[in-house]
């Protein structure tokens, strides 16, 4: 568990490693790889109220593998590892 508690409707995720070999078998250096869009949910925010005053409930849970927007969120280091802090609205879907 991370030593950070997201606030509000934010979610802390850890990006999953990108493929280092292309479909044609070429090894890609880190500089040529795109940011991975798959991540694992590490921690959920404290919740809050939506625009109608109803309690906000998260659609994801810790441990879920999710698809995230490519350029959303804020990069943070937690316990020496790279994580991403983003709004739940930047999560595009849950990978089953």
Element-by-element helix/strand order: EEEEEE
- Give the low-confidence spans: none
* DSSP helical segment count: 0
CATH superfamily: GroES chaperonin
* Cα-to-Cα separation, first versus last residue: 22 Å
Beta-strand level of the residues, as a percent range? 25-35%
Classified by CATH, the class is Mainly Beta
Q: What is the CATH fold-level name?
A: 10 Kd Chaperonin, Protein Cpn10, Chain O
Largest sheet: 6 strands, antiparallel
Question: Brief description of this entry?
Answer:
The chain is mainly β.
Structural description of this entry:
The relative contact order is 0.31. The radius of gyration is 15 Å and the shape is globular. Strands 4-5-1-2-3-6 form a six-stranded antiparallel sheet, with no helix packed on it. 0% of the residues lie in helices and 34% in strands. It has a single domain, classed as GroES chaperonin (10 Kd Chaperonin, Protein Cpn10, Chain O). It is mainly beta and 96 residues long.
């Amino acid at each position: 568990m991370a030593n950070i508690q997201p606030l509000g409707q934010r979610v802390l995720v850890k990006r999953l490693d990108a493929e280092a070999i292309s479909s044609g078998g070429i090894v890609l250096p880190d500089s040529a790889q795109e940011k991975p869009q798959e991540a694992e949910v590490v921690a959920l925010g404290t919740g809050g109220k939506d625009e109608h005053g109803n309690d906000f409930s998260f659609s994801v849970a810790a441990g879920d593998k999710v698809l995230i927007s490519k350029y959303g969120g804020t990069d943070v280091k937690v316990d020496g590892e790279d994580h991403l802090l983003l709004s739940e609205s930047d999560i595009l879907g849950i990978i089953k």
